[in-house]
What does this fold into?
Amino acid sequence: MKKAMCAVLCLTMIFALLPACAEAGTTEIVFWHSMTEEAKTLLESFVEDYNKGEGAQKGIKVTAVFQGSYADSVTKMNSILSSGQTGELPDVMQLDATGKASYLQADAAWTVDDMVLEYPDTDVSAMLPAAMMNWNLAGTQLGLPFATSTTVTYYNKTALGGLPLDTLADIAALKGKVSETTADGAAVTIYAAVPNTPTLANWLGQLGSDVVTRRNGSEGMADALACIDNGALVRFLTEWKALYASGALLNASADREAFAAGRLLVMTNSSSSVAAIQALVGDRFELGVCAYPRVHAQASAGATVSGSCLVMFDQGEARRAAARDFVLYLTSAEVQTAFAMGTGYVPSNALAARSEAWQAFVAREPLYAVALEQILATPDTMRSVTVGPSADFYYAIMNDISDMLVNDQSPEETAEIMEEDLGGLLWQYVRANP
It folds into this structure.
C-alpha cells in the first residue's frame, strides 16, 4: 500500500508539471447510485479511494451522482431511453430488480456478456453464483452483484429469550408467552408484515413454487401466475390467515422505530439493515437476527437474493474500458469485504467471504453472518420476481392479501381474486409490449 501511495504521489507531481497532458489523458466516467446512510458514506469513500489510487494510475476519474431511490433512478433511466438521448446515461449505474427489463431492452446497454466478449480475460468467477443468477435475465448476464442482500428476521432477544422463530406457526405461538405491554405500558405487537412481491417469492419458493411463469420472469416475460394450479398460493394464504387469527400478526408494514422501542418484537427486513437497526436499538435490548421464517415445518428454508447490481452503458470504447475497470474494483474482494462489514450487505465476492478479515469480523459480530449463511442454504430454484408492471403488481399483492384478513375471505377465494388481479396486470402488460 505504501508503494502504491508513493507511485500516486509521483504521478501527481508529474501531472502538476504537465497539467494539459494530464487532462488530455484522463477518461472521465459517471456513476449513478442509490445508496443512503452508512452505505452511501462507504460507497463515496470507495469512489474517492479509487480516484486517488487505481483510477489515478490508470488515468480514470469517476464522478458519483446520487439519484435518489432505486425507483427514482430507474424512472430517470427509462425517461432518457424513451427520449433517445443516450449520451445522458451514466457509464455505470446501480440497478435494482425494477430496472432489469428496461435495461435488457436498451440498445445502449453494455452487459457483462458484452464486456466478457470484448475483454475475454475478464474473470468474474469469484462472484457468488446465487447473486450472479439474480442479475441474469432471459439468459443475459446484465450486471455484477454489488449490494447483495436477502430478507432475514430481526427479533427482540431480551423479550423472546430462547423461544423458536423457525416457522409462521412458531410466531403465532408467541401469543400469550410474551408480555403484551412494554415497561412503560405501551402495547406490544409480536409481528407486523404485509406480504408483497419479494416476500411472496420467498414463501412460495419455500413451497417449491414460483409466483409467476417463466421461472418468475427470469427466463422471459411472465404472463400468468404459476402458483394457482399447484396449490402453493392457497397453502401459504392458509398459514398466513392462521397467523393473523392467532393475534400475533398486525396487518401493517413493520415500523423500525417501534421495533427499536420494544413495541414490536419480530420484524422481517433486509439483511442490509443490520448496522442501521443495531444503531437504532442501541442498548435498549439484545438484538437477535435469524433466518427468514418458513411457511410451515415441511417447507424448505431460505429466501431469495435481492439488492442491486452494477450495470454499464456504452459511451464509447475508452469509457467502456474505464467503466469495466471501476466495476471490477467495486466488486473486488477487498471492497466487498469492507462494504459488507460496514452495512450488513452480503459480500458478493466469494473470496471476500473466505477472507481472514471477514471471518474475524463475523466471529465478533455474528449477526452479520446470518444473511450469507441463508443465501448459501437457499435452493437454486428460488428466484426473485421480475415482471413488467412491477409497482402495480407489488401493491396488488399487498391489497389482496390485506383484504383477505380484513374481510375474512377464505384462502381459496383470495387466490381466485389474486389470479384475476395479478394475472390481469401481466396480460395487459404482455399485450402492450409484444
